[in-house]
Design a protein that fits this description.
3 domains; alpha/beta; Rossmann fold; homodimer; 12-stranded mixed β-sheet; 20 strands; about 25% strand
């Protein structure tokens, strides 16, 4: 039997559940792998968290360095979240020759490149399965399962909170704020839900997936990110009528050396598995060669389910069977004739302004003759061709919604058109625009 | 750069596509892993397959032992299928100290226990990602990703051919034989489609998943297996009306030490991702603790996509980061106080007769007064309670279908009831019965 010793820093929900799962399934893990994971110590800066340690009869410290400097510990598990001091703890642990497991997506999105570089230099690994899509073994599926695959497209529902809100809006016909409040009451959204609802959490995870799939860390401040707070019940109604659902998607597309990364609400056709992903679930769809289309689905949040991913990294590292991500901390390199690595191609990030897609546009217009003509004239002048228009029965003198689906159009033109249309006196601005992906 | 040498035995569709993918994505693999896979030789007993070797300028042999005995070869890739001589080749390769990669589900279902025992004895590994669900990295997801998870239920659409047939029947309202013929014309079903349509191929894969998830190889001859050839268009109509879809499911449920394994057509509710799995796709749904519900979806057949799984095993083994399945060839063991392994619990396989579930039953009955009374009396006498009955408008004197959905009932009772009902003179036997899973 192999015994490996770990120290856990951060006793929030995921931290506590990881301890509980390790206890509960300890004999199962040993049966399956002949491995015994021994928790040497728990750490949290909040001293009252020592109660959790007492509950499991485990040593507690409020100083992370006590664990990081413990020569007996093989793996440091960082589950505290946040940038500072998590970054220092991870870097110091690697420098002390320890492997690291983390669920910290914000930290990896910001400093992943540095962290993986230190790990490489020290010959250590960083497990980060729990940082993306909670319980879904997505990171391992990609890095171990798709090693020979070109990944052409990735569409991900990466945030459980926003998916819950959009799902509830669609199902119960309640507005954004009611759905948000419900999510908060159920503990599915934080009191300050900005990171989730504005798409930042999805963005962090997309950055990690960009590293995993394409070997590049984008500057996350430059990735186009749009949240769901402007989605109205009206849009939910109209898109359902048009046989679409609105989902907050993280999108990555690579063609040659151009990488298109973005996070925004997206219309996807009813019936596609991504469109049918309910409640707090996450789902990731990949279009690859040669493996074709793949979809992974599971719980995207919650300490209990996420503990499975944390433990799978601990066990993989302890058994020396952990598959590090492609490129192992390098950017995209190729191998020359002599076997030396040379930089192959610079990845160029596509600007959102160069994106071409179909659009859902919803105007609120005064119901008077000639409105449609004015709007469509502006669209035509910018080469935007309309695929369908929906305008419900007229209520004289009042404002009515007009919904258009466009054919493929350039984002730059759409923006210019909206700018002009919103200035029309017959339009109650701002108009709504949501991108469509034809999956 | 690490160089590993492989030999490929079997140049059917998967074999040829594996060679092609390895060529096409060779520099991608090297970029990502600093590994170079060198194909030392190709083998097929059919000498005309040497044309494939010439196409890729690779050495060809019709004697597998030339590769197995080649001391330069690190990994033998067996893609020939069938029991004999594949079994001998794999065992001999392991004995010669080579690791093995195989896509051979029939062989593993029959001799997996022996093969993994030899591998364990020799300290070698057998990669078998390609044996289940084509391109989906399911084996790795379970063995590396769910190592701390109890797997409570598994439902799998594991056979692309039957899923295609059922999907076409439902979509185009064609009967079983027309759909089968279409599948054959498209090369999606074999000329002798018995193994697919009678559920044997799904059964083989279920056996492998039983080993993977629960550490036990069942005797596949004792696992209840029912194919789709008796599904009529009438059943497709009625189940759709009742908001179900018929899918050929491989089912594994474990409660304490009782393992319930079976393969049969199953009614699952419309809207569940499994129900919506189209065409030749495969999907596997898992209910686990602590990871919760998970679903994996992708192409289940086809040489191109399956080559991804074959190569992922080759690369994992070559990099020494391959995760062997739980228990590594042993049955279910636990570890006693002194760290020694002892057999923990015998797994008891549940007989199909002890299954309790809900049922869809379709009778063809003479349309005369009292038929429903006769049928329901028999059902009641065997404790089978009816949840719903559908009988379409009467055509006097003719036969009409009656469809019933039962509440939870025992399989033994259902069989006894059907036996009695089919003997009624007003019933045109045999009646149809399909199990329901309430996902």
């Amino acid at each position: 039997m192999i015994v490996k010793k770990i120290g856990i820093i951060g006793l929030g929900n995921v931290g506590e559940e990881t301890v509980r799962s390790l206890r509960k399934h300890s004999s199962l893990i040993t049966q399956r792998t002949s491995l015994k994971i021994e928790i040497r110590g728990l750490c949290d800066k909040k001293k009252e968290k020592s109660k959790i340690a007492s509950k499991f009869s485990l040593p507690f410290t409020s100083s992370a360095f006590e664990l990081i400097n413990d020569p007996q510990i093989d793996i440091i598990v960082e589950l505290m979240g946040g940038i500072t001091p998590a970054r220092t703890f991870i870097i110091e642990a690697l420098k002390k020759g320890k492997n690291v497991v983390t669920a910290n997506k914000a930290l990896l999105a910001e400093y992943g490149e540095d962290i993986f570089a230190v790990a490489k230099e020290k010959g250590k690994v960083v497990g980060f399965e729990a940082s993306v899509c909670g319980a879904i073994p997505l990171i391992k599926s990609i890095s171990a399962g798709l090693v020979s695959c070109e990944i052409k497209k990735l569409y991900g529902i990466l945030n459980g909170t926003t998916n819950y809100i959009l799902y509830k809006m669609g199902k119960e016909k309640i507005d954004f704020f009611s759905a948000l409040r419900e999510a908060q009451n159920k503990g599915l959204a934080e009191k300050r839900p900005f990171l989730d609802i504005e798409g930042i959490d999805s963005l962090h995870k997309l950055c990690i997936l960009s590293y995993l799939c394409f070997g590049v860390w984008p500057n996350h401040r430059l990735v186009y990110t749009e949240g769901i707070s402007k989605i109205s019940l009206l849009d939910i109604f109209y898109t359902q009528e048009l046989n679409y659902r609105i989902k907050l998607l993280a999108i990555a597309k690579k063609e040659k050396n151009i990488l298109d990364l973005r996070v925004h609400p997206t219309l996807i056709p009813v019936g596609h598995p991504l469109a049918e992903t309910p409640s707090i679930y996450n789902a990731v769809y990949l279009d690859t060669h040669p493996a074709g289309e793949l979809l992974f689905y599971g719980e995207g949040a919650g300490g209990i389910s996420t503990s499975s991913s944390v433990i799978s990294d601990i066990v993989g590292i302890a058994l020396n069977s952990f598959t590090p991500p492609f490129y192992q901390g390098s950017q995209v390199y190729s191998v020359n004739e002599k076997g030396a690595l040379k930089r192959k191609q610079e990845i160029v990030f596509q600007s959102i302004k160069d994106v071409k897609t179909r659009y859902y546009i919803r105007f609120i217009a005064q119901d008077e003759p000639g409105v449609l003509t004015k709007v469509s004239k502006i669209l035509a002048s910018l080469n935007i061709s309309i695929a369908s228009v929906t305008q419900k029965e007229r209520k004289k003198g009042k404002f009515v919604p007009i919904v258009m689906i466009t054919h493929q159009a350039g984002e730059g033109n759409i923006r210019r058109a909206l700018c002009k249309i919103d200035k029309l006196s017959v339009i109650k601005s701002p108009s709504q625009v949501i991108r469509i992906e034809d999956l």
